Amino acid sequence: MKRSELVQRLARRFPALQPSDAQTAVNLICEAIGRVLMEGRRIEIRGFGSFAVNYRGPRLNRNPKTGERVQVPPKYVPHFRTGKELRLALVEQTARREASRP
Fold first, then answer.
1. What is the pLDDT along the chain (102 residues), one digit of tens a residue?
2. How far is CA 101 from CA 14, 31, 93, 94, 97, in A?
3. How many CB atoms lie within 10 A of CB 7?
4. How far apart, in whole angstroms, are the C-alpha atoms of residue 41 and residue 32?
5. Considering only CA atoms, which of 79, 29, 25, 77 is closest in space to residue 50?
6. What is the pTM of this model?
7. Residue among 38, 45, 31, 56 nearest 80 (CA)
8. Which residue, among 79, 60, 78, has the nearest Cα to 70 in the 3D structure?
C-alpha cells in the first residue's frame, strides 16, 4: 500500500476527516517514526510490530555486473518485526487460503 492509498482509506473510513487532515496525520506518523529511528531508538506499535535500527558491519561483497570484489562500508538499516497479533492473524489467513484451494 502506498502512502496516498493510506490517506484515501483514512478519508473514506472517517468521513468527518478531510483528505488534507488525513494527509497531515499520515505525514506526522511517518515523520515521528523516522525521527525516533534517526535517534537510534526503537518504536513499538502494540499488536502491529516494532521498528528498530540494526547495525551492519563492514564486509566484502561482489559487484553483480563485473564480479569485482567491493568493500561495503558499515551502516545502520531500519528493521521491522511483526507483532504477535499481526503475525498470528497472517498465519491464520494463510491457513484459510490454503484450506480453500482445491
1. 999 999 999 999 999 988 899 999 999 999 999 999 999 999 999 989 999 999 999 999 999 999 999 999 999 999 999 999 999 999 999 999 888 877
2. 35, 41, 13, 11, 7
3. 20
4. 11
5. 79
6. 0.73
7. 45
8. 60
Which cell numbers hold the place of 23? 494527509
Report the amino acid identity of residue 80.
Answer: F
Which pLDDT tens digit goes with each residue over 43-68?
Answer: 999 989 999 999 999 999 999 999 99
Could you tell me the CA-to-CA distances from 68 to 58, 59, 72 in Å, in that order?
17, 14, 12
For the record, the C-alpha cell of 46 comes out as 502494540
Residue with cell 488534507: 20
Strand partners, 52: 79
Location of C-alpha cell 525521527? 35
